[in-house]
Backbone:
């Protein structure tokens, strides 16, 4: 089956073929965090969706080059620096580190490149000069440099704007994405008193780059002038992504991005979760309440990325129950797989994995994919209850599960975590009990290991400990 994605540019699903003539490499750009505070779980809905996309592309055999920028200079950051008295670098590096930790807790693969805006100022200046030479940029009386949307006839194509409603000359110098932000937008923002010591020298005087230009410049630097995917939350369609297209295509004269993918917002009581509305949770808030990164990841990922998702604690609790159905199933399969009747391992058909993977081929249809998984859980649990599941079949299902687990990103940070010594000691004691055919004691030890948050499986080569 072919791979299809809903392209915001076309407002339709389209078949995906990589731009790479060899059909092997896929280039993916994701708008990254603005590092002035902890990211909230709404932000992470978008980042987890992007990670699912990357994992699916990799599982489909592509080699993905994933770039995510770090916005480390911007209005909100400057305000935070002013209010905290910290240096720009001190504050932004601290939250960048927290962001990376949170991404790891949520099982997100680290993008291969995470460029910072402040480390690309010279390149951004050169980019703006290129736009000036091409006749798209001008310096206004306030000292800032603006992009003239009048000069770019297809402006508004992504957001489907009615150009007659764009007020000529209405300039927008703020970074924050306001829907009233029609009109010319800032490429370079002249220094003001409020910026304090945060500025760079440029041909237009002291100032700093605008937000949109950062993404055009850094995505093209690392991925080339045209690349496959550009992603973000739906609030980025306008003006951020519209402006990125205008700047990039005005500079190069070439199509910027093939597929634009946008995720729907995480909501709270019908309102977008956001810092400004004050209705947000950070990952750390939820960890403090006893939830795990794995649970939150599953809660965010299990609803299709283009459907709005209302966040509630009840939803997280339901997720915990769902995962609790999976863990004992895996444990049981492990036991069944090592049973004596396993015999020679026949070629497993991999039907579960194929069905799961093909569902994701259709614009990441996660509901259908998880439907296949839980149907297999139900059916094989029944077979195990009736002692009808052959060891070889259990081995095959386990192998499918491992692929699904990787595709969903549920194993990261769990399989790799080393068990504590006391858990290892219990597992060894259990090995000895099994050797002595003391099944009752072996079962007690399994329960004791479980109570400490670990699952023990008996594999042909010995026991294996996995985080619950
Ligand atoms: P920011 O740091 O504000 O630039 O946001 C980082 C990413 O999170 C962007 O892709 C936003 O579109 C996305 N985002 C912000 N709020 C939400 C939300 N409530 N639900 C989903 N994504 C969001
Ligand atoms: Zn961006």
Residues:
């Amino acid at each position: 089956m072919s791979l299809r994605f809903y392209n915001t540019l076309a407002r339709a699903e389209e078949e995906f073929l990589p731009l790479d003539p060899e059909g092997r490499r896929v280039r993916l750009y994701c708008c990254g965090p603005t590092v002035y505070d902890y990211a909230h779980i709404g932000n992470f809905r978008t980042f987890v969706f992007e990670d699912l996309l990357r994992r699916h592309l990799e599982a489909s055999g592509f080699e993905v080059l994933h770039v995510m920028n770090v916005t480390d200079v911007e209005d909100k950051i400057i305000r935070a620096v002013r209010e905290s008295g910290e240096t720009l670098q001190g504050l932004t590096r601290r939250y960048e580190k927290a962001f990376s930790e949170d991404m790891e807790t949520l099982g997100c693969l680290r993008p291969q490149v995470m460029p910072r805006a402040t480390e690309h100022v010279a390149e951004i200046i050169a980019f703006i000069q290129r736009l000036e030479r091409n006749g798209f940029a001008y310096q206004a009386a306030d000292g800032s440099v603006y992009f003239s949307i009048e000069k770019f006839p297809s402006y508004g194509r992504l957001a489907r704007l009615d150009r007659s409603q764009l007020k000529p000359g209405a300039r927008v110098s703020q970074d924050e994405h306001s829907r009233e932000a029609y009109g010319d937008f800032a490429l370079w923002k002249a220094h003001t008193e409020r910026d304090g010591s945060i500025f760079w020298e440029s041909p237009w005087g002291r100032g700093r780059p605008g937000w949109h230009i950062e993404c055009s410049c850094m995505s093209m630097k690392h991925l080339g002038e045209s690349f496959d995917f550009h992603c973000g939350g739906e609030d980025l369609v306008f003006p951020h992504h519209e402006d990125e297209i205008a700047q990039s295509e005005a500079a190069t004269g070439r199509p910027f991005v093939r597929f634009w993918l946008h995720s729907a917002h995480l909501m709270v009581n019908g309102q977008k979760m956001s810092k400004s509305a004050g209705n947000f949770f950070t990952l750390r808030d939820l960890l403090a309440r006893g939830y795990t990164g794995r649970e939150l990841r599953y809660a965010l990922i299990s609803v299709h990325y283009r459907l709005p998702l209302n966040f509630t604690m009840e939803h997280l609790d339901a997720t915990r129950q769902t995962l609790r159905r999976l863990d004992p199933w895996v444990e049981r399969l492990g036991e069944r797989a090592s049973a004596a009747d396993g015999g020679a391992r026949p070629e497993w058909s991999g039907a579960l994995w194929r069905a799961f993977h093909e569902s994701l081929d259709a614009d990441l249809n996660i509901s259908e994919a998880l439907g296949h998984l839980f149907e297999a859980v139900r059916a094989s649990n029944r077979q195990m209850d009736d002692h009808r599941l052959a060891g070889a079949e259990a081995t095959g299902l386990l192998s499918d599960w491992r692929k699904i687990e990787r595709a969903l990103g549920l194993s990261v940070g769990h399989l790799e975590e080393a068990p504590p010594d006391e858990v290892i000691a219990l597992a060894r004691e259990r090995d000895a009990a099994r050797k002595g055919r003391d099944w009752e004691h072996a079962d007690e030890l399994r329960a004791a290991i479980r109570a400490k948050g670990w699952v023990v499986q008996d594999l042909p080569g010995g026991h294996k400990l996995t985080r619950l």
